[in-house]
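Second attempt. The first submission of TetR/AcrR family transcriptional regulator had a stray character pasted in from the spreadsheet, which I only caught after the job came back as garbage. Lesson logged: always re-copy from the clean sequence file. Corrected sequence (414 aa) follows.
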Amino acid sequence: MTGMTVDNRHPARSATSGESAPREVRRRPKNRRAQIAAASAAAFGSHGYHGVSMEGIAAELGISSAALYRHYPSKYSLFREELLRVGTAMSASAHLPEAAQNWSPRQRLWHILDTLIATAIDNRATLTLVRWEVRYLDPADLATLIDEQKTLTVALETHLGDIRPELSRADLRVLRASVLSVVTSIADHRATLPTKSLAALLNAACAAIVTAELPDPRPDEATVASVEIPDSFKHELLLHKSAELFHEHGYPNVSMDDIATAAGLSAASAVYRFYRGKSDLLAAAFRRGAEMVSGAIRAAVADSTDAEVTLTTLIEHYVARSFAERALSFVYYTEFQHVPVDERTVLRNIQRLSVEEWARLLREVRPELSPVQARIHIHAAFAMVVDLGRAFGNRPTASQERVRWLMRQVLFGV
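This time the job returned cleanly.
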């Protein structure tokens, strides 16, 4: 079995004629608990909390479910331990050495950022739990994680304020949230670089945010209106209402009856006239969003031959769409694993082509970037838009104008 060792201190006696072969004596490895934790971390990182089972983890390790339960009483205990471990490791980035008393404010901040970036890279496989799966923690465990996170957020805001004393607390919160988003965005994609190169890229993107001269906070000229869909357009209404429910409660916790009620239908059976099931609704919503992004690229490229102008147009479209479809933007990151496998492949291809086109344009503006570096910048900018929406909603402190400006900072640099 995988991970098992054989005790060779007493060589097995050879079988003689008429005797059965002696059975090997197998010892339980001393690091079994660590092996289980590592396997579960990889599983949660790839499939999310609801996509993992104790039986699957046991099969991956080559042990029985009973052996797994001897170490952990439930899937939740595994999930909780890994999520809190990563949260604690990130919060530890805020601790400064004694020598920091003699450092400049900039040195203190960058020590924290460098440590945070290194921690994020080391835990990239399960960083997604901290970004998107925390809502599945029990209230007491969630409170513990939030307390841990406060250590880091307070430290970042404090040292940012020492460097940028002219900024209001609200502005410092926006910059802090943007920095954290960029650093943790590596959990949202698979583009890879050597560790040092990736750390340098994230460091430079953070520097562009920290030095950003934010536009004055003011309400958007056009308030983002809620999507109004006539009741007769049931297929559109179902897409919109299901995305809102998935956003609020999580895909696994929403039933077809819930969706039918939200859309004004008498029973779940009425939904099946339009969609075969819950996963089809999710896939249709994602397909709609992905095609809107790719369609915007075609229009922007056709209207301009200047790469920076084209990217600026795409930034405006992306931010406007994200503000108008907050629920769908969030759900795309959190529930993608629930889309049927064949549809998932199509969606990934559409997204990959869109990101590559953004990256191509970015490399025309910044030819020093490699294709992979450009893609990582694009993913970081996309994640920041969603994260600022989660943190600030439509408040003027994170208006569309400001989010667009921060997106430009991440993409175009200082």
